[in-house]
Write a structure and sequence with these properties.
The protein has 281 residues and is mainly α. The chain has helices at 6-28, 45-48, 54-87, 94-106, 109-126, 135-160, 163-171, 176-187, 189-205, 208-213, 221-229, 235-276. It has two domains: 7-43, no CATH class; 55-259, Orthogonal Bundle (MetI-like fold), CATH 1.10.3720.10. The protein is 76% helix and 0% strand. Helix 3 packs across helix 11 (221-229), helix 6 packs antiparallel against helix 9 and helix 7 (163-171) packs antiparallel against helix 8. Keywords: Cell membrane, Membrane, Transmembrane, Transmembrane helix, Transport. Belongs to the binding-protein-dependent transport system permease family. CysTW subfamily. Residues 60-255 form the ABC transmembrane type-1 domain. The chain crosses the membrane at residues 9-30, 66-85, 97-126, 138-158, 179-202, 239-259.
Length: 281
């Protein structure tokens, strides 16, 4: 009989430390009591009350909108930056460019948010844009922050690719842009999806950057929750958080299922190709 060792104990404790608060949050989202810390029985009243809480739901929709466009922009910019860093080994200013790409990873968000705020204020005074801070400035700030994560993830994948496949395509007459979109992008698709999901989660979770660069009428969900928590946690917040956990879990499961089916199809295709090969004499 296999013993329950120290490593297994640490694994269980680590998982409990991470996921037990989420389970408690989901349970208390069904609490009938108006006091979050007092259990009053099972009820769906707070889920039904979300439709009437227009302020909270508007914040949710704004956060989802910003997170979606941030994921798209961060994947495009981060992929281009990763391609430059991995496929152009030598150019003037490469070290500086690599440092600028990865700087948001180690820069405190307070410093990044303050610098972006000063940038937007200076641009507004000199260029007249942006006239006021809102969802656009939040999107720009989140894209700047998330592009660094995408660049790191995609760079790791690009370094593992076999360049002979792309070189063979160019030897057959394919142009570089066609090789990139038809060969390189499909091979790095898992890293693009991972970068998009990471960017979406980081944007949806961000509070510090949004607090600096937001304006009137551009309150995101983390800002709404933070301002509400200072006056006491409301039961509707537990319900919204539970719905977000459900949506993230479903998205993760769908991505895992698609990746699993793709990998299985690839293995079957390789097996069929190997079985159809004629042995050499």
């Amino acid at each position: 009989m296999k013993r329950f060792g120290f490593s297994n104990l640490m694994l269980v404790l680590g998982l409990l430390f991470i996921y037990l608060p989420m389970v408690i949050l989901v349970i208390y989202s069904f609490n009938a009591s108006q006091l979050v810390t007092v259990w009053g029985g099972w009820s769906l009243r707070w889920y039904g009350g979300l439709a009437d809480n227009t302020q909270l739901m508007s914040a949710v929709l704004r956060s989802l909108q910003v997170a979606f466009f941030t994921a798209l922009a961060a994947v495009m910019l981060g992929t281009l930056a990763a391609f430059v860093l991995t496929r152009i080994p030598r150019f003037r200013g490469r070290t500086l460019f690599g440092g600028l790409v990865t700087a948001p990873l180690v820069m405190p968000e307070v410093i990044t948010g303050l610098s972006l705020l000063l940038l937007f204020v200076a641009m507004g005074q000199l260029l007249g844009w942006p006239a006021e801070r809102g969802l656009t400035t939040i999107w720009i700030a989140h894209t700047t922050f998330c592009s660094a994560y995408v660049a790191v993830v995609v760079s790791a994948r690009l370094r593992e690719l076999d360049l002979s496949i792309e070189e063979a395509a160019m030897d057959l007459g394919a142009r570089p842009w066609k090789v990139f979109f038809l060969i390189t992008v499909p091979m790095i698709a898992p890293s693009l999806v991972a970068g998009a999901m990471m960017s979406f989660a980081l944007s949806l979770d961000d509070l510090v950057l949004a607090s600096f660069v937001s304006g009137p009428g551009a309150t995101t969900l983390p800002m709404e929750i933070f301002s509400a928590v200072r006056l006491g946690v409301k039961p509707e917040i537990n319900a919204v958080a539970s719905l977000i956990l459900l949506a993230v879990s479903l998205a993760t499961f769908i991505a895992w299922y698609i990746a699993r089916r793709t990998e299985r199809s690839r293995r079957l295709a390789l097996q069929e190709a190997g079985a159809n090969e004629v042995p050499e004499r």
